[in-house]
Every structure is written in structure tokens, then in C-alpha cells.
Amino acid sequence: MEIDIEKLKRKTPYPEPSEDFFAKMQQNVISQTIGQHQIVVGKEAKVVPLNFKWMAAAAVILIGGITAFFSLNNNPEISIAQQSPIVDSVYEIETPVQKPAANLLAENTTAKQNQRETPTPKYLNEDQTLVSKKAKTEVSNSGNISDTQDYAAVPKDKSDLDVEKVLAAFTPDQLKDIDRNSEQDVYLDLYN
Amino acid sequence: MKFKDEEIVNLLTSPQTVEKGLRAMMDTYQSRLYWHIRRLIVDHDGAQDVLQDAFIKAYQNIHQFKNDSKLYTWLYRIATNEALQALNKMNRMKKTDEDAEYHMQNLVADNAGQDAEEIQVFLQKAIQTLPEKQKLVFNMRYYDDLPYEDISKILDMSVGTCKTNYHYAKDKVENYIKDNYSQEF
């Protein structure tokens, strides 16, 4: 039996694929090529994976920064020293300026003259001892000022006399006890 | 609607018309490529996967296509390579120890249509006995009627080698049919 394949029908024995086979195949190809690109264009924002080392380093820096910030702010000396004086726009704080010696001399003499011109108070009683106050201010030629003021007895009040009487009644030992028991209040002058 | 190769390539290389170009390429060549792959793979589902992969590869590598060659020879080359890779993978994954040739012949019998002619089934079984290169040349020359020049470009071999391979393949197929067909009838 002679077989010549050139004379046969050039057909494959396999059945034809279904009608929608090529349409489905095209859809699959589109979705795996162009469809993927469209998804990539509209995808969500990129999420950067956090490395544990970087997270730990950032946490240490953050804790250190917060600690340093609060420790600096809690130091009152630094904070007070750093504070600038609050100056009202209306009232200015006048800082005392040290005047030269010549000006001081002039002011002293003026004050002396004013003191002399001050009239004697009329309300002094007769029993009170009025002691004039002599103040001499000698100015040397070199410009040095020496105060030679003599302080005379000042008229004492009645209460002062009473206190003296009471104190005179105490013996020296009792006075020592009182003195021992009493403590000097350093802030007394401030409050008076 | 059939497109010329130049039109398809122009559509594929422009971002605005890439989908249209891809559809044009598939519309034009899907049938020919499917049957080329189907004759090699035999199984329909396997052929579908290979055809899809071939078009995806063609789309991804369209910038490598040189306009001095024909688009269909380039597509045939891609499809052939994909089909051979799939066949090698099938052979590696085959669980039974049966011969690859015997396995493919059984596959032909299983996939043949009910109205298929026996001589056509025998012809396909005979093709499965051919070496790889002879099988490729025979299929493209006998069924697709491709010129030897194009087959030589697709398979990257000389025209003379293609002709020789076809001659040997034809002799083997005819002898196989003569031996087996006459035994059955």
C-alpha cells in the first residue's frame, strides 16, 4: 500500500475550540499586560517597610531629645537667668548710675543748705530735749569727703523711757537669759 | 479585520494605541499560532496557556522586533520556543515511566475529535515519532505551507537543512502510516 501524504487533506483531527475561546484568551492577555500597567498607575501610595534598626535608633533619639528638653527647662537658675527684664512700654526702669565725686559734693552742700533752711517743728514739747544737730562736712582740697557730723541726743519718747525702766529692773543674769532666748529674725527688717 | 505587520507594530509602540495594537496582533495571528502550538502540545488547555504566554512575551519584547523581518516569523519563533519549553516541562513532570513518544501518541488519540478521519489521527501519531527539528519543519511546511526561507528564519537554520529535514520527516511519516494503517485495516 502506497501512501502519499501530499494528496491527503491537510486537516488536524482535533476539534475546533469554542467560539469565545479567542475572546477569553485575548482578555487574559490584556489583563496580564496592559491591565497590570493600569493597576500600577492607580495603585495606592507606596508603603515603606520600616527597618527595626532605624526604628530603635529613632526611638533612642526621641527619648533623649525629650529628656534633654525637659531637664533644661526645669533648671530655675538657667531659666531665671535667661529671662529678660519685663519692661512696660510706658514705665521704664531706671538703673542707678554712679555719679562722680564732684557731683556728690555739690548735692551734699545743697542738701545741707536745704536742711538749714528747714524750719524747726513747732510741735515739740518742753520736756523733750531738743538737741541740735551739727553736721560738719569738711571737704579737703584734694576733693576727699570726710563726714565729721556730731550726732547729739535725740529726744526720747515716753515708751522708750518705759522700756529703759523695765530693763533697769532686770538683773544682768535675767538680761542674759532674755538675750539667749531671743533669736534674731533675719527677715524682720524686710517685713518692717 | 486583518492588519498589516507595519500597522500592528506602529500601534504597539505608541502608548496611546498599545491595546489596539495588541488586539490587532492577536486578531491577525491567534488562529494560525494556536494550531501551530496545538499540533506540538496536542492538549487544548496546554495550547491555550502557551498561546497566552507567547502573546504576552511578544508584547513585552516588541521593542526588540526588527522591522526588516516579518512579524509572523517573529511570532512563530516565540510561540515555538514557548511550546518546546512547555513540552520539556511536561516531560519532567510526568509521573509514569512511559516513553515520551508513546505518551504523546496516546494524547493524540484522546484529543482527536469524534468526526476525525483515522488517516489524520495516524498522521498526527506519526508526527509524534519525529525528532524535534523534523517535527517543527514538517508541521510548518505541511500544515501552514510556510516557505522554506521563513522556516529557516523561525528555526534559525539554513534553507537546505530545512528542506532535508522535511524530506526525511515526510518519508518517516509515510512509512509509519503504511506500517500501522495497513495493520489496522
Description of the molecule:
The complex is a heterodimer of chains A (192) and B (185). With 192 residues, chain A is mostly helical. Chain A has a domain at 158-183. Chain A has 8 helices and 2 strands; from the N terminus they run αααααββααα. A two-stranded antiparallel ribbon of chain A has the order 1-2. In chain A, a hairpin with a 5-residue loop joins strand 1 (137-139) and strand 2. The longest helix of chain A is centred in the first third of the chain and has 23 residues, at 52-74. Chain A is rod-shaped, with a radius of gyration of 54 Å. The model of chain A is unreliable at 120-143 (pLDDT under 50). Chain B has 185 residues and is an all-alpha fold. Chain B folds into 2 domains: 1-93, RNA polymerase sigma factor, region 2, helix turn helix motif (Rna Polymerase Sigma Factor, Chain: A), CATH 1.10.1740; 96-185, Arc Repressor Mutant, subunit A. The longest helix of chain B is centred in the C-terminal third of the chain and has 26 residues, at 159-184. Chain B is globular.
